[in-house]
User: Fold these one by one.
Assistant:
Number 1:
Amino acid sequence: MKWKLPAACMVWAFATAQPQDLARELDNVARTATVMVDGDLCQRIQTERSRGFMSKEDPRDPYLASDNYDVDHDAFDRTKKTLMRLARLCPLACDVNLWTPLDTSNARVQIVIRNVHEMSSFWKWGDLHQPMPPEMKSVLETGQRVVVSRPGGKVSVLAPVRNSLDDVVALVEVVAQQRVDPQENVK
């Protein structure tokens, strides 16, 4: 029973910490994610067939892209497990999400894997893809991690994901909230 008290104190300390303290913890996870997440595997998650439907629009079928979204299950599962393990490195409840650009123009981005707590500083519920936020564009173009603080105590660190050619092909969002609202994502 003695081991629970220090753990509870550590969680309380981080729950009352300043945003820069939380950002430092998230940055440690993000730095590790850059090394651990396999960019070649990430590039294989969404199938070519599915990618082809992402830009098609049909007035008779507004859900064409989402109805035809599919993944390579092996690549998806292996990457998701890695992201879930990375989230355990954070002392607070956090998520490690995977984002990929839709094409080489970096104009639009999609969230490919969301995790346990469904936290994100960027994802809007129900959007299959969205305009590329400037912070994400910066990570994809420079390969440098970026810290983003949002109203409500949400802090994210965006980190690059590289393939075997050392190209930045995706990014991870390591995100947590200072004050967790259990009803935030309940619809």
Number 2:
Amino acid sequence: MPIDSLPDLGASAGVLQTWILPALLGLGLASATGLRTFMPLLMLAIAARFGLFGISLNEQMGWLVSTPAIAALGVAAVVEFAGDKIPVLDHGLSAMGVFIRPIAGAVAAASVFAGLDPTTAAIAGVIVGAPTALAFNAAQGGTRLASTATTGGLGNPILSFIEDVLSFFTVLLAFVAPILIPIAMILVAVLVFRLANRLRGRAEDVPSF
């Protein structure tokens, strides 16, 4: 291999570590926050606190690994998990998610751009995280509305548990193999939209009196 090519390899590795991998990790975290606001942030904080999966945070997001922040995220995640299993209340959480989850997605995405200055990381987080979280939250809301129309809300806790599982494993995949996140996002999106369309179809088949 020519010596002249070594600097190019170094530059490519730098771009990969500074931009591409953090962007993919941020996408995975943001898509997970579109389904659950606090669990992905909690998982990120714990991973960074204990050095799991090689996760490190941008310096401006160091507060996430503090004990009070982890404790607060843990309580919020439990409250969200339980509240989302209650019909009617779950719609309220989904409505709030329109405003809260894009912020959570932006925070999660910005935090993993560890090699950038805080301002650039924040901008990258907004670009990567906010629209991704908003899109997945919108898909979740549509599925919930369709489920409510067909099951009277009785099927919503089952959907909620499925979303818990999808959110958890999306974050885990982002930690272990961020390169696979685009494929996972497509699969999750297709699953959610197909489920919503199927539920809407059933709602249209229900006779009205």
